[in-house]
Amino acid sequence: MNRWGGSKRGTGDVAVETRQCPHCKAEMTYKGADGKTTYSCAVMVTIPGVYDGGLYILCPYCNGRWHRFPEGHPLRERAAPYVDEQ
Ligand SMILES: [Zn+2]
Q: Count of domains in the chain?
């Protein structure tokens, strides 16, 4: 399992699904050194051979996992075995 953490996006542009952990309710966003750029410390987990990108989201505090893809999305089904095994 490879991990690439901290989705780095522009100001106020952190994806809504990476803003808060649904398990421990920890706030995932924080401001960068410039005081403007918002980052998320939520970890996008990549499963090589399944999907060459972030398949689901992992909380660095409680190790809880949750989906990034909406219900009915084909990649949500592929992520389900990993997200639901917790
Ligand atoms: Zn958490």
A: 1
Domain assignment of residue 67, given as a range: 29-83
Structure tokens at 31: 């401001």
Q: How far apart are CA 28 and CA 43, in angstroms?
A: 10
CA of 83 to the centre of ligand 1 (A): 13
Whether 3 is in a domain gets the answer no
What pTM, to 2 d.p., does this model score?
0.78
Instruction: Give a yes or no: residue 18 inside a domain.
Output: no
- pLDDT tens readout for residues 31-57: 999 998 899 999 999 999 999 999 999
Integer Cα distance of 18 and 21 in angstroms: 7
- Give strand pairing partners of 8: 39
Kindly give the distance from the C-alpha atom of residue 44 to the centroid of ligand 1, in angstroms, as a whole number.
13
